[in-house]
Amino acid sequence: MISVLKKTIIVTLIFPALLSASLLAQESSQRLNPYDLLLYHEAAGKVQKVQTPADWQKRRQEIIRGMETVMGPFPGDDQRVPLEIEVIEEVKLDKYTRQLITYQSGPDSRTPAYLCIPHAASKDHKVPAVLCLHPTDNKVGHKVALGLGGRAGRNYGAELAERGYVTISPAYPHLANYWPNLGKLGFVSGTMKAIWDNSRAIDLLASLDYVDMSRGVGDIGHSLGGHNAIYTAVFDPRVTAIVSSCGFDSYPDYYDGAERVWYFGKGWCQIRYMPRMSDYRGKLDQIPFDFPELLGALAPRSVYVNAPLHDSNFRWKSVDKCAASAEPIYDLLGANGKLVIDHPDCDHNFPEEQRQKAYELFDSVLKK
């Protein structure tokens, strides 16, 4: 039998150790403030201040883990099967040829896309490329980005082709003509399927002997395409210039935090987006990633954000708060001034002036 004294000694020695381990585990799992990007968890779980780019990479990896918690995992390279491009139709226009294609984005999955090829592009005259991601449209889908949907300000895929860029505009899952079986293909969200399709579209661009990839590629999108562009660039470092129009505010600020948009099938919680988001209804501060962090995760790359003053979907003041939180990371990585926020006096739109600024950004980054 252990004496009372020995029991007391054992409890005295063990209890602090158990308490310490418990506190350490609690700190390790702590959701870091999304508006303070200069914090990270060290290997032992303790919260530390970001002092160096290497420290920031630890926080960035934590952000990506948070994204995958909600979106599902980004597929491995074993899913990069041969593209097996098929041309469905081809139309020759004044400055470029537009092809409707499909490509094999993964095993048992083909993705439709429009590929626009400037007439000047050739093996001996390579030109840069831009991934053009369309907004929500359940009638014509990715046709909108080519000016085929009758909606002004969304035809950036065509305008950039006229400007001399190869452009590719993939269809978005569960819109218009593209309905992949997400569960059967191993995806828990349409968002991750779209990110993967976009990454494979960049593989396709890299395979073309008339595309110049030496400075990476651009990506651009409006609304749905606006956040799709950000998500894709976080996972694919080949994207070196990002344009997001009317694409985001912080998740707690979305529709001013109205609970009605956080039920399964609503807002961000739709199957074609991230159905797991509904798990955070009533506790939005626990969503394990947010746009302040995603903007930081894009650094030191060039980013242009169009956030209109009268956008009814996303609040411009929230966009500014997100950007202000990301600025210290741009400073840390020597990229001060590469995150630009623009506030045109309009509604949920992408005016010509802002599109021209976006195209000039691509020129400055992608053209020699």
Automatic annotation (TrEMBL):
Cited SUPFAM superfamilies: alpha/beta-Hydrolases
Enumerate the spans annotated as 4-O-methyl-glucuronoyl methylesterase-like domain. Answer: 194-334
Q: Name one Pfam family in it.
A: GCE_fung
What keywords appear on the UniProt entry? Hydrolase, Serine esterase, Signal
InterPro entries (UniProt xref): AB_hydrolase_fold, FrsA_esterase, GCE-like_dom
Extract the signal peptide range.
Answer: 1-25
Q: Which GO terms describe its molecular function?
A: carboxylic ester hydrolase activity
Identify the Gene3D superfamilies for this entry.
Answer: alpha/beta hydrolase
Q: Give the protein name, as stated in the record.
A: 4-O-methyl-glucuronoyl methylesterase-like domain-containing protein
